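Tokens in:
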């Protein structure tokens, strides 16, 4: 055998004898992901029926709220979408929960008081309560 053939054969044997890991180049795959901040609340009620209301009186309702998100939330209770819009000037909504902070998984009671002005005219009405 010629010397060059022997060298080639020796190189081939050395290559075959190397562990497979040396034959493969290491490939790195970069990964990215994100877990978003989710501020989400669940409530013990879907609707509130205030019933028949009289001028000059106040009415109370209560329900529970749970922070089902993954970040702390500070509650703000507001009324909107008054129908008819004129009723808003005769009603005042108050809540004990405005400013309350809820950690993820934490719950609290939300108390509402709706005050009807003494000069409120007779009418049927609807409105939305938002808790954010």
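Residues out:
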């Amino acid at each position: 055998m010629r010397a060059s053939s022997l060298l080639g054969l020796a190189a081939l044997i050395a290559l075959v004898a190397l562990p497979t890991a040396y034959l493969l180049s290491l490939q790195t795959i970069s990964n990215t992901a994100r877990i978003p901040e989710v501020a989400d609340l669940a409530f013990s009620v879907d609707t509130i029926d205030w019933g028949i209301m009289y001028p000059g009186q106040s009415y109370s309702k209560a329900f529970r709220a749970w922070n089902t998100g993954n970040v702390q939330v500070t509650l703000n209770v507001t009324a909107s979408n008054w129908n008819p819009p004129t009723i808003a000037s005769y009603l005042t909504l108050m809540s004990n929960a405005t400013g309350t902070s809820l950690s993820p998984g934490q719950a609290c009671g939300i108390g509402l008081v709706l005050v009807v002005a003494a000069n409120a005219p007779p009418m049927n009405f609807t409105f939305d309560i938002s808790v954010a």
